[in-house]
């Protein structure tokens, strides 16, 4: 009985600990940064890669927009580095309350960031290949570029699964840490579950990718909302 009471007392004390305001603000800033960068990246390079275009056409398009490709690489590098930082910040907030589950979240989001940087490496390879001084004929270069672009798309599906599952693992800790309104955190949980399911679906049926893009809109709105909320550093937000 005493042991049970002691555990409950410890649990109450841990749950009453508010994370430091600077950590909460940093987490909010990272959420907003990670939302802003993909929008810029998508605007620079993704519209240039048309589904169904021939390999040679894709090669010529990328050659004509080499600066946009390099800008996308820089933006993605910053973004996935920020994902690492966000994973650590989320763990520091959620870890004291749900340590076991929070570790899973840290691992999953670290996998997300690592695979994201793999896609950056693939994009760097594409950038090197599209240079006109590469000693291969255009047919060979075009085939390699097309393969790398497809690998990048496939890797992104796994990245999104890791994002959804990792973010879900932090939800219990965020609820107990009381850093944001309960309804907002639960809404985020639903958004991340949808993202993970949509990514699984596109892995099984790549043709559904364009139709499932709408699933990411609520998640984007959630990350903007929680980022703005946390930036206000309100560790004792109403539950």
Tell me what the structure shows.
The protein is an all-alpha fold and 239 residues long. The protein has one domain (20-231). Helix content is 79%, strand content 0%. The radius of gyration is 21 Å and the shape is elongated.
Topology, pairings included?
Blueprint: H1 2-16, H2 21-44, H3 55-64, H4 66-94, H5 99-129, H6 138-177, H7 182-204, H8 216-231
- Which term fits the overall shape? elongated
Number of helices: 8
Counting helices, strands and paired strands, the structural category is mainly alpha
The tally of beta strands, per DSSP, is 0
pLDDT below 50 for ≥5 consecutive residues: which ranges? 6-16
Order of SSEs, N→C? HHHHHHHH
Strand content: under 5%
Kindly report how far apart the N and C termini lie.
Answer: 30 Å
Question: Major sheet, described briefly?
Answer: none
What number is the mean pLDDT? 81
Helix content: over 70%
Q: Cα-atom Rg, whole angstroms? A: 21 Å
Count the domains: 1
């Amino acid at each position: 009985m005493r042991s049970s009471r002691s555990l409950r007392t410890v649990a109450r004390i841990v749950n009453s600990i508010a994370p430091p305001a600077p950590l909460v603000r940093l987490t909010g800033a990272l959420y907003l940064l990670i939302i802003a960068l993909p929008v810029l990246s998508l605007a620079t390079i993704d519209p240039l890669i048309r589904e169904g275009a021939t390999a040679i056409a894709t090669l010529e398009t990328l050659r004509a927009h080499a600066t946009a490709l390099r800008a996308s690489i820089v933006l993605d590098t910053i973004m996935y580095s920020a994902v690492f930082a966000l994973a650590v910040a989320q763990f520091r907030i959620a870890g004291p309350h749900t340590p076991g589950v929070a570790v899973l979240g840290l691992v999953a989001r670290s996998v997300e960031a690592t695979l994201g940087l793999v896609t950056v490496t693939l994009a760097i390879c594409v950038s090197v290949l599209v240079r006109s001084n590469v000693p291969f004929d255009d047919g060979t270069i075009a085939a390699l570029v097309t393969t790398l672009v497809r690998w990048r798309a496939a890797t992104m599906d796994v990245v999104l699964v890791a994002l959804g599952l990792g973010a879900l693992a932090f939800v219990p800790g965020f609820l107990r840490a009381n850093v944001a309104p309960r309804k907002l955190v639960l809404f985020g949980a639903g958004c991340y579950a949808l993202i993970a399911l949509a990514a699984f679906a596109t892995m099984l049926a790549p043709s559904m990718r364009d139709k499932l893009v709408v699933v990411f809109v609520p998640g984007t709105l959630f990350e903007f909302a929680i980022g703005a909320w946390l930036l206000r550093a309100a560790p004792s937000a109403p539950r």
